[in-house]
Design a protein that fits this description.
about 170 residues; two-stranded antiparallel sheet; 7 helices
């Protein structure tokens, strides 16, 4: 076992993508809960869900961003992959700033069971940037092929195995 597996994940099973699923899902829920509140679908439940989801999203953004940063540092600077990854990183960090601002400026209205218009606009901007960042993140994998092993004939049991087999390490270049 390599020490880098702790923050990078195993060959063919990187850690950053599953963390992004949690983060994106949480911020998506926050946006939907905020929408439910500002449109009157819910009374105060939408506001409470919105703010709690924003706070949880900010917490899980920490490990998500850290693992992404460590992956970004492994990319050769100036390459097309690096350019795409840098745009992804920028979009995601900017989205996080907007979600944090929404949580900060929306806290007073949240305590009264509402989502303020300003906080909801900040949430929507954050969600738009999150969507852009997710689009670019998928380009990193599906266009540039980062961390993709391309072992098409790999038996199913070995493909999903949590053990870092030698062929996976070779395919990843390790």
């Amino acid at each position: 076992m390599k020490l880098s597996y702790l923050w990078r994940g195993l060959p063919g099973h990187p850690i950053h993508p599953p963390l992004t699923d949690v983060t994106i899902g949480t911020y998506t829920f926050a946006t939907v809960a905020g929408l439910a509140d500002v449109t009157g679908i819910t009374q105060s439940a939408g506001a409470y869900g919105w703010w709690i989801a924003l706070i949880f999203g900010l917490i899980v953004t920490g490990p998500t961003a850290l693992t992404g940063l460590l992956d970004w540092l492994s990319i050769t600077r100036g390459t097309e992959l690096w350019k795409t990854a840098t745009l992804h990183l920028t979009a995601m960090l900017t989205a996080t700033v907007f979600f944090a601002l929404a949580a900060i400026f929306g806290h007073a209205s949240y305590t009264h069971g509402n989502v303020s218009s300003a906080a909801f606009v900040l949430t929507l901007i954050g969600f738009g940037l999150l969507t852009l960042g997710g689009w670019l993140g998928r380009a990193i994998v599906f266009v540039h092929g980062m961390r993709v092993l391309n072992l098409r004939g790999e038996p199913a049991g070995r493909a999903g195995s949590p053990i870092p087999h030698a062929e996976k390490e070779r395919a990843e270049g390790g």
